[in-house]
Structure formats: C-alpha cells, structure tokens
Amino acid sequence: MRIAIDAMGGDHAPEAVVTGTLQAAREFADVELILVGDEPRIAQFITAGGGKLPGNVRIQHASEVIEADDEPVRAVRRKKDASMVVAGRMVKEKQADALVSAGNTGALMATGLLIIGRLPGIHRPALAPMIPTLEGSGTLALDLGANMDASPEHLAQYAVMGTIYRSKVHQLDQPRVGLLNVGTEAMKGNELTKAAYSQLEQLPIHFIGNVEARDILSGVCDVVVCDGFAGNIMLKSFEGAQKAIFTLLKQTLTSSALTKIAGLILKPKLRVFKQYDYREHGGAPLLGIDGIVIKSHGSSDAGAIKNAIGQARTALMNHLVDAIREEIKRNEGQL
C-alpha cells in the first residue's frame, strides 16, 4: 500500500504534515508513505525530527503549491507541478493508492475529478466527513460541500457509497441510512427529497426514512444523505453551536474564584469533549473517485494528519474503491 501525502497543503504545512507522516510511518510499518512537495523544506523538518527518513517514507519533489485562496479548477490546470496535483497524478498512474491532503478543498475536489477521475457510473463524487454523535459511533454525512445541487439519483448514489464506507471502514453491519429533511414523514420536504425518498426505498440498503438535523447528534442514523448546500449549512451550524457552547462554558468557569475552583474539579471530566474534535477523526473521504482521497481539515496538526493516513490505510485494506465500483455496477438500473 502506497499513500501520497500533500506535504504543502494546510495551515501548518509542511511542518505538521511531515511530523504527522513520520508518526504514521512508525505506527503503520506496512505502508509506504510518499511526501509530495518542496524537498528542501520537507527535509528541514525531517532533520529537526531526528535526522533521517524511516525506511517506509520517501520524498517526491514538487515545485509548486496550491494556496488556500487560489481558484480551484484554474490552479489544478495551471499548476501542473503543485504538490496536490503531483500526488493526484501518482494515484491516477498507479504510483500511489491513496492521497491525503489538508490543502484547498475545492482544489482537492478538482484534482479528484480532473486528474484521478470518477469511478464508472458515478455521476458526482461526494465529500463525506464524520459528524461526532453523543453515543460515540458518529454519523457519516454526504454530501457536505462537493456539490451544491443534486438530483435524486445523486442522493441515491451517496446512500450506496456511504453504506459501503461504513461497512468496510467502520465494520458496521447494515448501516442505517437517513435522508436529511424538515420532518420525518415520508411526504415532507421539497421535490428533491420527495423523489429521493422513493429511490432510496428501492435500494439494497437499510433506509430508515427522513431524519431531522436536530436528531443527527443523537445518533439517529449511521449515514445521512443530502445535497451539498443543505449539508454544508448543517455542518457549519453544528460547528457554530459547538464553539458558542465552549465559549459560554469557559466564561462561566472563569467568572469568579468559586467557579474557577469548580472548573479545576470538572476539568478531567471535560476531556470527554475531545471526541468532538475534528483532529480525532482524521479527515473526510471524497467518495466516488477512482482511488482513495482523504481531505484533512485545513487546520490539521500532526495528530490529525497521522489519523488521516490511518484512515486511508484502513480504506485500502478493506478494498473500498473496488466495493463501491462493484455495488454501483450491480445496481446500475436503479442509480
């Protein structure tokens, strides 16, 4: 298994990416890790971390970088020697089996589509991050931003790909699939969700019907499907609410000497909130691409990069892409 890592992508690149890759190399001895980017800058942080590359890590030089504010498609087409593009080309040419990047999200989607390519039969790939839930198992949500608009057929494909991902990567038996909607009744929603509901009922998945956004964090389903517009709004709402709760908690626990003492007592118990940290979940797979592509959060630290590499490794070990390819072909008439 060979995983190409975009060493120049992310707010803390290349230091965090290099450090996380070295951590992953020590933990996953069965994987070859390829750091793609500016070789002198990468080497600088390898030297700082101990002096030499582990046997399962190598560097692939790339002279350009796609920046956070670059226009995605234009950057991918013009910056042919950008670290992300070179890594994508390695997957396309079978020099690597997976790509991990914390860089420009739009550019990574463009790399997936224009460089690596879609799986046969897939209309649109979907970005599928895990949303942490109260009972701990999380909900895979797709699509959360790759496509602002969707058709019922797209949502049906998301449901199939999400089911396979949770079955293969998270070892869930019959993942529960929900359709994000404004109510749980079968005929609620707009024309898209009404049409999608009928299609999802016919698929060989465990479809539980419509689910509301307020129930997602309670773990009402294992996979939730939606168009990228609604999904991204849902995700940003969760992130905003989390930030507001943490701010209020901090203000309350530091408002007086008494509450500061209470804060010290509660601090060990508050570590439970760590499970809601994006860094603990590695990254979001871009499903529907002919190769494993994992998008790490732009602010990823070394630990998040290591987890994303582990996520890519698990997907490869369980032959995720082949499973999606076979299932899409099997249900071609319904998708």
UniProtKB/TrEMBL annotation:
Pathway: Lipid metabolism; phospholipid metabolism
Listed transmembrane segments: none
Keywords (A to Z) from UniProt: Acyltransferase, Cytoplasm, Lipid biosynthesis, Lipid metabolism, Phospholipid biosynthesis, Phospholipid metabolism, Transferase
Single GO BP term: phospholipid biosynthetic process
InterPro entries per UniProt: FA_synthesis (IPR003664), Phospholipid_synth_PlsX-like (IPR012281)
EC number: 2.3.1.274
Reaction it catalyzes: a fatty acyl-[ACP] + phosphate = an acyl phosphate + holo-[ACP]
Chief subcellular location: cytoplasm
Keyword Lipid biosynthesis: yes
Keyword DNA damage (UniProt): no
Subunit structure: Homodimer. Probably interacts with PlsY.
Main function: Catalyzes the reversible formation of acyl-phosphate (acyl-PO(4)) from acyl-[acyl-carrier-protein] (acyl-ACP). This enzyme utilizes acyl-ACP as fatty acyl donor, but not acyl-CoA.
Protein name in the entry: Phosphate acyltransferase
Organism: Insulibacter thermoxylanivorax
Origin organism lineage: Bacteria, Bacillati, Bacillota, Bacilli, Bacillales
